[in-house]
Amino acid sequence: MAGTPSTPMGLEPPQPVDWAGPTQQAQALFKQTNDAMKHMQNVLGVLKSLATKADTVQMKDIIDGAGRLVASGAVTAKQMAGILATVPANGGGAALAAWVKAAEQKELAAMQKLQGANELMRHEMGVSALRAMGSKMGFEPMAQGPGEATPGTPLTTLGGDQGGTQAQAPAPPQMEGPALG
Question: Where do the DSSP E strands lie in 20-93?
Fold first, then answer.
């Protein structure tokens, strides 16, 4: 510590943090989730068109839709083989329609989870970009309790380990009028 400047309390000044790596990582993850969402939208489009046929859906329709998905790159041939293996072999319209409906519901649930991950990646990309800009402008990250901020430290953590609190949205305004129920 001799020969290096320190703060009045004898603490070492914070070292500049390179945020370029986390920014590139956040961009890559955002692009990955965005691409996956596009592929899922293709899959959902095929499933919805099959679902409109209801009990009149035939195995030929499912195979045609599967071929379009593989050709578009939405799924690989191996993935599609795994999906087609779950199609009921002995059954006509009602069994196939039930399979299509179940597959559509499963894809919708997966799409919702993926949308949440995509929004999180969008947020992380913005946060890391702001940190990178601040670092280039000479701003140092704020300390997070006993240690320094590092790439990946959440911005919403306040107070270190003195019973830190999470940032919270304000309470919604109170509405006047009769209660709905």
Answer: none
User: What is the β-pairing status of strands 157-158 and 165-166?
Assistant: antiparallel
The predicted-structure confidence for 96-112, as pLDDT tens digits, reads as follows 899 999 999 999 999 99
- Give dist(CA 60, CA 126) in Å, integer: 46
DSSP class of 167:
-
Mean pLDDT value of segment 82-90: 86
Could you please report the per-residue DSSP string of 95-161? HHHHHHHHHHHHHHHHHHHHHHHHHHHHHHHHHHHHHHHHHHTTPPPPPBTTB---TT--TTEESTT
Contact of 77 with 70, CB cutoff 8 Å: yes
- In which element (H, E) is residue 166 found? strand 165-166
H or E element, residue 165: strand 165-166
| Alpha-carbon gap, residue 6 to 9, rounded angstroms | 8
CA 34 to chain centre: 8
